[in-house]
Task: inverse folding
């Protein structure tokens, strides 16, 4: 308990940023889904092709991710906005246990707050079956396909983040790579699993919609995928190639992690 109190006393701004960031991502997901999927929306009627509508939502989520990573706030907290990513960096020895736990608590709280705010702003539109609180659930291919897909996309995102963020040449592009990947995932992978990669994001939507079917997929598959990506990275690059837990480190914001970037 002492370590948790000490961590909170020193690092509470980072925890607040992580919660607020995921809350904003939730709000973007809900708003974009309502704008492009609700039958009363003019934009939905202007884009009858479901693939184009998913591309629009994907672009909105990708742009939100990029904006969050490159904001002064994302540069400070490391821009995880995902408890699974935080725990993967904990596994890699870059995040202290107290910080990992408090990051996760903040992220789950932020997702819930973002969903509540979305409900207040969007009203009855958010509960329409075409919007359904932007829940993530298995698609027509079933539970097994959704589970496998979540492993694949989560692992892909984490591997890209690790390779890019730990390179002097590409570190500053990590947020861009992750945002583009999220946009592509939503466009093409959404029909399989709903494109989550994030248990906090999924729980926020599930709580709003009171729809908890197959929730276990989104708590286990992203963890398996990101941990697998960490192991692949370690085997290919070695532990010394994991410099820090920040996605964007070349900035003037403080770093609370077990950072070796400056020793490079």
Result:
């Amino acid at each position: 308990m002492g370590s948790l109190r000490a961590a909170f006393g020193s690092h509470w701004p980072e925890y607040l940023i992580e919660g607020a960031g995921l809350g904003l991502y939730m709000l973007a997901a809900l708003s974009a889904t309502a704008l492009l999927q609700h039958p009363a929306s003019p934009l939905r009627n202007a884009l009858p092709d479901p693939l184009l509508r998913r591309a629009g939502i994907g672009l909105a989520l990708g742009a939100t991710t990029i904006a969050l990573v490159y904001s002064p706030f994302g540069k400070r907290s490391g821009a995880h906005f995902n408890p699974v990513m935080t725990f993967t960096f904990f596994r890699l020895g870059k995040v202290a246990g107290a910080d990992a736990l408090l990051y996760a608590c903040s992220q789950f709280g932020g997702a819930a707050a973002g969903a509540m705010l979305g409900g207040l702003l969007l009203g009855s539109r958010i509960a329409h079956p075409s919007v359904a609180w932007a829940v993530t659930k298995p698609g027509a291919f079933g539970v097994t396909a959704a589970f496998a897909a979540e492993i694949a996309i989560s692992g892909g995102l984490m591997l890209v983040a690790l390779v890019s963020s730990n390179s002097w040449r590409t570190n500053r592009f990590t947020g861009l790579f992750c945002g583009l990947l999220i946009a592509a995932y939503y466009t093409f992978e959404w029909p399989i699993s709903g494109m989550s990669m994030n248990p906090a994001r999924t729980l926020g939507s599930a709580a709003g919609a009171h729809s908890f079917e197959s929730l276990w997929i989104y708590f286990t598959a992203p963890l398996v995928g990101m941990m697998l990506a960490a192991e692949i990275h370690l085997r290919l690059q070695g532990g010394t190639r994991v410099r820090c837990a920040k996605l964007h480190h070349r900035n003037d914001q403080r770093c609370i992690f077990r950072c070796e970037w400056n020793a490079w």
Remarks:
- The chain has a mean pLDDT of 94.
- The CA atoms of residues 142 and 183 lie 23 Å apart.
- Residues 2-263 form a domain with the Glycerol uptake facilitator protein fold (CATH 1.20.1080.10).
- The chain has one domain: 2-263.
